[in-house]
């Protein structure tokens, strides 16, 4: 029965009173926003080259290891993987990840230290939800991947940016980190190898960061989605490998390593050797939070052991060879263009290019990007999307000949728009 004041009796008592939550309103992803709302059209006479989104599948030249694809289709047809798994992921998948990351550069970990998530994005959301709340803050690198801020803000948290030193191969400005820490700081996010900088930190630099975190008693969230994606023999060290005491939440996914971003499988690896997180109830919270969504999907979880098998890892090396080749091809071409200054990428899949606006006749990086798209049909992302004005980021995922063509278009573009005629 409807109560007497129901709309049936008096329609005017009821109005739609919907409001959007402040958290939702404060959710903003600068890269997605820029890419999806670009109103400038490319030059119809030139084939578009999109070096914008860090999607290794964009050009079809960096395939997912084929054995895993084959296994996935067999597993789906078998009908055995249509049910739920444990909320934090199947044991088989977590074991494969634990085994892979227990190799020499890492402290050994167990399957129970791994929680599966919906990509690294889901891992960021999971750890920030467990550590932070309204009014708390997290330290993020600048320039840095903007999703940290997007997710923190949508959880009601703030971000405080710490400086990366361009002149020092984008190493962390340790003094700046110290100056940003306050009583509300719940974590320091370290992204290594870096998006957008393409830098890879040395063991010694990681030790300095960990020592600082130890002194300030702040845990580290290590976004290591580009773990082991290094060029020319540069070694990768995980933050956890340098941290006997400080709790580290290491995040990753198969998105870049195995060129499978659409499969949406990521993880959090908990390194808590002194039970600091456990005693604070944070590990329990992480598990409770996984009970909301039950991700990633069971069929994708089922192929993780194959993906991390020796055969697939060999195939993965081909992805790395191509990215490395591209970094080595594009760097000298772009570095020689007057008005551009680059740091040679050591890993990940990006090059961050400084624009000298005393040489190039543009007001800012957004104008540069839009005009480049309009005249040369080359799509890049302005540095301001990463909190760094006066730069652009390119992705190194295109076939070498396409990347070379993009570099040559950038060269004529910069020459045409030089302030020096
Ligand atoms: C540093 C960094 N973290 C997280 C992500 C998100 O990755 P995923 O596709 O695994 O969610 C990306 C994607 O580009 C990234 O560059």
TrEMBL record:
Residue ranges of domain Aminotransferase class I/classII large in the record: 48-410
N6-(pyridoxal phosphate)lysine carried by residues: 256
Entry keyword set: Aminotransferase, Pyridoxal phosphate, Transferase
Requisite cofactors: pyridoxal 5'-phosphate
GO molecular function: L-tyrosine-2-oxoglutarate transaminase activity; pyridoxal phosphate binding
Top-level taxon: Eukaryota
GO biological process: L-tyrosine catabolic process
Signal recorded as keyword: no
Record has tRNA processing as a keyword: no
Database matches in PANTHER family: TYROSINE AMINOTRANSFERASE
NCBIfam families linked to this entry: tyr_nico_aTase
Family named by the database record: Belongs to the class-I pyridoxal-phosphate-dependent aminotransferase family.
Name of the protein: Aminotransferase class I/classII large domain-containing protein
Lineage of source species: Eukaryota, Rhodophyta, Bangiophyceae, Galdieriales, Galdieriaceae
């Amino acid at each position: 029965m409807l109560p007497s004041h129901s709309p049936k009796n008096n329609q005017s008592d009821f109005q739609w009173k919907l409001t959007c939550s402040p958290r939702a309103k404060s959710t903003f992803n600068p890269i997605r926003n820029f890419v999806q709302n670009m109103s400038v059209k490319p030059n119809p006479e030139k084939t578009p080259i999109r070096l914008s989104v860090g999607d290794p599948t964009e050009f079809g030249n960096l395939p997912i290891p084929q054995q895993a694809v084959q296994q996935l289709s067999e597993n789906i047809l078998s009908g055995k993987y249509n049910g739920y798994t444990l909320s934090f992921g199947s044991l088989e998948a977590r074991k494969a990840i634990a085994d892979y990351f227990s190799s020499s550069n890492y402290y050994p970990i167990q399957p129970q230290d791994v929680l599966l998530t919906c990509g690294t994005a889901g891992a960021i959301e999971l750890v920030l939800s467990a550590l932070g709340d309204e009014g708390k803050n997290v330290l993020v690198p600048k320039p840095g991947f903007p999703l940290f801020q997007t997710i923190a803000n949508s959880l009601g948290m703030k971000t405080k940016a710490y400086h990366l030193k361009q002149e020092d191969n984008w190493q962390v400005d340790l003094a700046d980190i110290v100056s940003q820490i306050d009583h509300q700081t719940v974590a320091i996010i370290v992204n290594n190898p870096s998006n957008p900088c393409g830098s890879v930190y040395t063991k010694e630099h990681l030790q300095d960061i960990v020592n600082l975190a130890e002194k300030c008693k702040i845990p580290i969230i290590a976004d290591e989605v580009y773990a082991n994606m290094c060029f020319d023999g540069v070694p990768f060290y995980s933050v956890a490998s340098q941290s006997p005491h400080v709790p580290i939440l290491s995040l990753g996914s198969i998105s870049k390593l195995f060129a499978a971003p659409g499969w949406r499988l990521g993880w959090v690896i908990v390194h808590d050797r002194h039970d600091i997180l456990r005693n604070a109830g944070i590990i329990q919270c992480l598990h409770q939070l996984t009970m909301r969504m039950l991700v990633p999907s069971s069929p994708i979880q089922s192929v993780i052991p194959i993906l991390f098998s020796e055969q697939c890892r060999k195939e993965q090396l081909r992805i790395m060879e191509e990215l490395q080749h591209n970094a080595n091809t594009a760097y000298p071409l772009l570095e020689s263009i007057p008005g551009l200054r680059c740091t040679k990428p050591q890993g990940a899949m990006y090059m961050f290019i400084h624009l000298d606006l005393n040489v190039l006749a543009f007001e800012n990086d957004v104008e540069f990007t839009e005009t480049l798209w309009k005249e040369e049909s080359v799509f890049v992302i302005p540095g301001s999307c990463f909190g760094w004005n006066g730069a652009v980021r390119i992705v190194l995922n295109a076939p070498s000949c396409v990347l070379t063509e993009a570099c040559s278009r950038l060269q004529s573009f910069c020459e045409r728009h030089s302030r020096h005629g």
